[in-house]
Amino acid sequence: MARDMTQGNITKHLLVYAVPLVFGNLFQQLYHTVDSVVVGHFYGKDALAAVGTAGPIMNILIFLIVGLSMGASILMAGYFGAKDYSALKEELSTSVLAGLILTVFLSVLSFLGSGLFLRLTRTPDAIFADAAIYLRIISGGLIFTFFYNVLSAALRAIGDSRAALYVLILTTFVNIFLDIILVGVLKMGVSGAAFATIISQAVSAAALLAYIYAKAPILRLARRELRLNPSFLKKTVDFSSVSAVQQTMLYVGRLLVQSGVNSLGVDAIAAFNAVSIIDSYVLAPGDSLASSLTTFSAQNLGGKQYDRIPRGLKQMLVIAEIYTLLVGILVLAGRRPLLGLFLKPEDTEAIRYGLSYIIPMASVYFLTGITNTFQGYFRGIGRLMITLFATVVQIPIRVAVTYLLLGRFGVQAVAIGTAIGWCFMILYQLISYRRVRPAESRL
Question: What pTM was computed for the model?
Fold first, then answer.
C-alpha cells in the first residue's frame, strides 16, 4: 500500500514505514545465517569458515546492485512526492534495464574471478575449494538478487514497505526448507546451501513482480514502456554510482578486514563469521530506520515540505538511540548463548576469539544510531556525496587500526578499529549537517 509522507504525523509515518523494513531486514539476514548454521551443524567449523570467507566478496557484488537500487529509490520517492507518476515509471524502467546489464557483467566477472578473489583475501587452503564453489554458485544467481532489490526499492519509494516483508517471510521458510533438504538430507555441503539461497531469491523476485502487477498499478510497466531514457539514465547513474561506490567501499573495507582475520587461522575465521552474523542482526534494524528517514525526506523534498525534514531527523535520532542502547545491553548479556548458535562447545579457541570481539563491539553499537540516521537524512535530500565522504573517512581508519592491532589483540582489533572509524564518521556528519539546508537540496 502506497504511503504519502508529505502530510500527517511524522513519528507515525517513520515508525509505520520502518517496522516492516526492520522485520524484512531481519528475515533477509536469515538467508546467510541459515546457510551458516546448517552448514556448521552438519559439516563443522571448516565449512562454516568457507561460507564466512566467501561472504565479504559476495557482499561487494550484491551491494553494487543495492547501490543502484538505492539511488533509483531516492529518485522515485522524489517523483512520487511531487505526484509526477509518469517520471516515476520512466525512472523504474531505466533502472531495471540499466541494472540488468550491470548484473550480468558482475555475474560473469565473479564466476570467472572467484579463485583470484579468494587468493587475494588469503583464504586458507583447507577451506579454499568449498569457498570457491559457494561463491561461483551465488554469482550465477545474482540476477534474482537484482530483480528483488530493484522491485523492493520501487515499492519503498511509494511508501510500501510491507510487501517486501511478506515476500521475505515466505522465501525465508523456503530457504530453511531447502537448506535442510540439500545440505542435511542430500549431503550437498556448501553447494547445497548456495543453491538454496539462489532458489529462494528467485522465488522472492517472482513474488514481488506478481504483487506489483496485482496491487501496485502505479509501478506496472507495459512492454512498450520498457526503455532506457537517456536523461533519466544520466540522473540515475549520478545518484546510483555514488551509492554503489559507497557500498562497494564499505565492503572492500570489510574484505580487507576479513583478509587480516584470515591470516589468524580457521578458528578466527569461524569466530569472525559467527560474530559478523550477530552484528548483522543487530545493525539491520538501524539500516531500516535510516531507510525510513530516506524515503520520508525524499518525499517531503519532492513535495516541497522542507520544514518536516529536520523534524524527522531529530525524531529518528531518538528512536535509533533507544534501540541501539537496548540491543547492546541484550547482546552483552547473552553473548555466550549467541555464539553457541554457531560454534560447538568443543570449539574453545573459536569461542574465545568470538567473546573477545563481542564485548567491545556491543558496547559501541549506540554509535551506529547516529551514523545511520544521518546517512538516511543525507541520502533523502540528495546529498549523496556527503554519505560517500563519510564512508571515505571511516573505512581507511577502520582498516588501518585493525591491521595495527591485529597481532596483539586478534579479532578484538576489528571491534576497536570499527569503533574509532565510527567516531570519525560522526564528526564529519555533524560538521556537514551545519552546512546543509534541505530547501537548497534537490533530487
Answer: 0.73
